Amino acid sequence: MTDTAEPQILVVDDARDIREPLGQYLKKQGYRVRLAAGAAEARAVLEEARIALVVLDVMMPGEDGLSLCRALVAKGGPPVILLTAMAEETDRIVGLELGADDYVTKPFNPRELLARIRAVLRRAPPAAPPLPAGRRRFAGWTHDPAARTLRHEDGRKAELTSGESRLLALMLDAPRTVLDRVRLLDLLAGREAKAYDRAIDNQVSRLRRKIEDDPKHPRLIVTEWGGGYMLAADVEALE
């Protein structure tokens, strides 16, 4: 996929009369726009496109917007602006607690939403660089960043999210080196620090469940109290 300078925005709303006019308006403002009628469509778009920001309706059939917001924050995904009903103050509070970057209440003025989009994009870090292409081996595991998989020499296999794979790749770049959260935030160039700091801890926990013999007593990804995390293994490049 060819990348261009204009940020790409994903609008997720089950109401066609909101989704499509908003998409046209944002295109006229110079943004590239993708549309999704629900969470399942949004997930498919996020897997194959570089999205700079998600405008996300809270009330949708099936998986609601808060659930999708929670998943995006946990993966260190793009910033999220929630669209909420004016009366649903609880949804707005929960959304911000989950890590949403802002919210706009319906009915909304497109110019207000545009101003909030621009403000969030201004404070968002640049997009993370592509994952390294080469496979690497450590402690019997082989990491394939292109396929986002881990395979052990004993036959075990683990699928990784894009965030988990990127985090592991950074640790493989600097084995036996403590990577503190501030440095990880800079390298991952993901969400604003407060939200992504929690996401790093969550990703480390998930990685441990996938590769450690005893995740409660990790021996490969170890915690340096007051510092950060360290990959306690030697790394061999395979390609």
From TrEMBL:
GO cellular component: cytosol; protein-DNA complex
GO MF annotation list: phosphorelay response regulator activity; transcription cis-regulatory region binding
Modified residues (4-aspartylphosphate): D57
Residues annotated as domain Response regulatory: 8-121
Residue span(s) of domain OmpR/PhoB-type: 133-233
Primary location group: cytoplasm
Ranges of the DNA-binding region feature: 133-233
Alphabetical UniProt keywords: Cytoplasm, DNA-binding, Phosphoprotein, Transcription, Transcription regulation, Two-component regulatory system
UniProt-annotated location(s): Cytoplasm
GO biological process, one term: regulation of DNA-templated transcription
PANTHER family recorded: DNA-BINDING DUAL TRANSCRIPTIONAL REGULATOR OMPR, REGULATOR OF RPOS
Protein name: Regulatory protein VirG
